Amino acid sequence: MSDISLKEKYPEFFNSNSDLSCGPGWHLLIDGICRIAEKQKCHFHLFQVKQKFRGLRIHYDTNNLVVKGAIELAEFISFYTCEFCGNKGFSCCKGGWYATMCEDCKEKKGYIENKINIE
Ligand SMILES: [Zn+2]
């Protein structure tokens, strides 16, 4: 997606302390969540968006069940989506570092496939 950062696109959901540190391949997932929150016209705040244990981890505040469901789905999809380019991804590792990447990004970054059961 875009050169426009998500913080600029959705200033109402972030503040200056919000930490958006996941790779660009997952920004479309965050964009989708923010669009849904806009449509719900609910209270929604993003504190932190990062990668943890190969997947997207979102710390947020809302009571809206539709937005909560969207976040759960985005976190699930992230385990199958390259964090760096958004292509279909799989679990990779390099030393003690783990990430979800596509074949190309894995090669570029010197990772190897991590054959594990994702559950
Ligand atoms: Zn990739």
In short:
This protein has helices at residues 6-9, 27-40, 65-78, 103-109, and strands at 19-20, 45-52, 55-61, 90-94, 97-101, 112-113.
Structure characterization notes:
This protein has 119 residues and is α+β, with helices and mostly antiparallel strands. It has one domain. It has 4 helices and 6 strands; from the N terminus they run αβαββαββαβ. The chain has helices spanning 6-9, 27-40, 65-78, 103-109; strands at residues 19-20, 45-52, 55-61, 90-94, 97-101, 112-113. The strands form 2 sheets. A 3-stranded mixed β-sheet has the order 1-2-3. The protein has a 3-stranded antiparallel β-sheet with strand order 5-4-6, with helices on one face. β1, α2 and β2 (45-52) form a beta-alpha-beta unit. α2 (27-40) packs antiparallel against α3 (65-78). The longest helix is centred in the first third of the chain and has 14 residues, at 27-40. The chain is elongated, with a radius of gyration of 15 Å.
